[in-house]
Design goal:
The structure holds two protein chains of two kinds.
Chain A (H helix, E strand, L loop, with lengths): L14 H12 L4 H7 L2 E4 L4 E3 L2 H5 L7 H12 L23 H31 L3 H27 L2 E4 L7 E5 L2 H28 L12 H20 L3 H4 L1 H23 L2 H7 L3 H16 L5 E2 L5 H23 L1 H23 L4 E2 L13
Parallel strand pairs in A: 1-3, 2-4
Antiparallel strand pairs in A: 5-6
Helix pairs in contact in A: 4-8, 5-6, 5-11, 6-8, 7-8, 7-10, 7-12, 10-12, 10-13, 13-14
Chain B lengths: L6 E14 L2 E8 L10 E4 L10 E13 L2 H10 L19
Antiparallel strand pairs in B: 1-2, 1-4, 3-4
The chains are: A mainly alpha, B mainly beta.
């Protein structure tokens, strides 16, 4: 079902050729275009956000001005501008030869990656548009640029697999949700840093075991995750402008909640893609713990504690959450009264396990004066 | 804004979609300075918009903004934060293969 043209974008030497090859699919009605129409549709469903823009505009980066300017200038210089191009390293992908179950998991991975990048772009653009503090709007503009670029790159990989994104959500009723500014900092900081840790762990693993690299997109992960790393750096600096954000009692509880929620969601979700990890030659449990280790190490730059991921209650309860999540999914599928009861029980199990993980005592960390880090993994 | 009642208003808007290799993005901008608040809903009228691959499309449309009631707004403010997980690549996406 892959759309074929005389020169497939995968074989193009430059981005321009790749675009031209893809463009050829979209011009007059040809058999290729008919294939395009027959492509599988996947609806992107990002959320739309508002926040307290006055509070965000009131941020003063003066306390971290030198580091801030350096980071923003580095982002402005756009070191990855030329990176997201298909070159000779982009091998032809044998989609038809891929085992269907693996293909399904891998495509699910690409779609959720694309959605996350796309959602980041929507959020950042909104912040940029409605804010008036030049430091902050510049940052959001630069991040929106990177996320849109990543989303475009994944989109291209999806198109090769015969999947077309559908932006139909634009003309559907959209509800705007709300993010407190400080939650944007915690959530974005964490999602960018854990994103870095995830991509670099896979990249390094495949560097050592290239025989497991079943798709060329993994070759792009290193520079890609350096973008994520810089975005996280900017939020680390932002959190440094107001010590209360990471030091007050309530905010520490929030940070612990965010860390626990992000780590456990990742654990549950990754364990639901067994074939994907098997194809990469990665033990998913090892991978999870390794990503947590790296993220925790990095987060010491700004968070006053790390989660105790070696605690005896840690893995046991992450596994319980995963089992509960399976039960909920199965119950949902089953429906009826029995399904409903099973679902509620599953949710109670998940909540109990979550509380058990959340209440593991954290490990204290003395936060350094200057948070700036370089990607080191 | 009523405590329990919603109200509606229309606003001209511009929808921009970039469906290119180097950028996949989509944005809606209100041209009359309308500002969307927590809990409000926006419906852009007209047919589905999709740029052909490799192109950027910009279209002027009309949107209906349904203003949330005060109660809804408070609720969204209190609970919206929990949807943050979507920013993570490993979030549970709601995409539908059709």
């Amino acid at each position: 079902m892959n759309a074929q043209s005389p020169l497939h974008s995968a074989d193009a030497a430059t981005a321009e050729e790749a675009i031209a090859a893809q463009d050829a699919l979209d011009t007059p009605m040809t058999s290729e275009k008919a294939t395009e129409v027959a492509m599988q549709n996947t609806l992107l469903t990002p959320r739309f956000y508002t926040t307290d823009f006055d509070e965000m505009d009131a941020i003063d980066v003066s306390p971290v001005r030198a580091d801030w300017d350096k980071l923003i200038n580095q982002m402005k210089s756009d070191p990855n501008k030329g990176h997201f191009k298909k070159n000779e390293d982009w091998d032809t992908v044998d989609w038809d030869g891929m085992e269907p179950a693996l293909k399904a998991e891998f495509i699910d991975f690409l779609i959720s990656s694309c959605t996350a990048e796309f959602s980041g772009c929507v959020l950042y653009k909104e912040m940029k548009r409605r804010g008036s503090n030049a430091d902050i709007t510049t940052l959001f503009q630069l991040m929106a640029r990177d996320e849109a670029r990543h989303a475009g790159f994944i989109n291209d990989a999806l198109r090769e697999a015969g999947i077309r994104v559908n932006l139909g959500f634009l003309t559907q009723q959209k509800k705007y949700t709300y993010f407190r500014p400080k939650f944007i900092y915690y959530a974005t900081y964490l999602s960018e840093k854990i994103g870095y840790a995830r991509y670099i762990t896979i990249f390094r693993h495949l560097e050592a075991h290239p025989e497991h690299r079943f798709h060329p997109i993994f070759k792009w992960f290193r520079e890609w995750c350096n973008d994520e790393f810089s975005h996280g750096e900017a939020f680390a600096l932002l959190m440094k402008t107001d010590p209360k954000l990471t030091e007050s009692f309530t905010n520490k509880l929030w940070i612990k909640f965010f860390l626990t929620a992000v780590y456990s969601t990742m654990w549950v979700r990754d364990h639901q893609r067994p074939l994907f990890h098997e194809a990469l030659g990665v033990d998913v449990t090892w991978y999870g713990q390794e990503v947590f280790r790296k993220t925790s190490e990095i987060s010491k730059q700004v968070f006053p504690f790390t989660l105790d991921i070696e605690h005896r209650r840690w893995r046991k309860n992450l596994d319980r959450m995963e089992a509960a999540s399976r039960q909920i999914a199965a119950a949902k599928k089953r429906g009826g009264v029995g399904g409903m009861i099973s679902r509620v029980v599953g949710m109670a199990k998940a909540a109990t396990a979550f509380v058990s993980v959340l209440t593991i005592p954290a490990i204290h960390n003395a936060v350094p004066e200057n948070p700036r880090l370089q990607p080191a993994y | 804004m009523g405590f329990l009642t919603r109200s509606k208003e229309t606003a001209p808007c511009t929808v921009t979609i970039s469906h290119r290799f180097e950028e996949l993005s989509a944005h809606v901008k209100f041209n009359n300075g309308a500002v969307v608040n927590p809990g409000d809903s926006v419906l852009v009228h007209g047919a589905e918009i999709m740029a052909p691959y490799g192109e950027v499309v910009e279209e002027d449309r009309t949107a209906t903004i349904t203003r949330a009631s005060k109660l809804e707004q408070l609720w969204t403010r209190a609970t919206g934060d929990f949807e943050f997980m979507e920013l993570c690549e490993f979030s549970f996406s709601e995409e539908v293969l059709s």
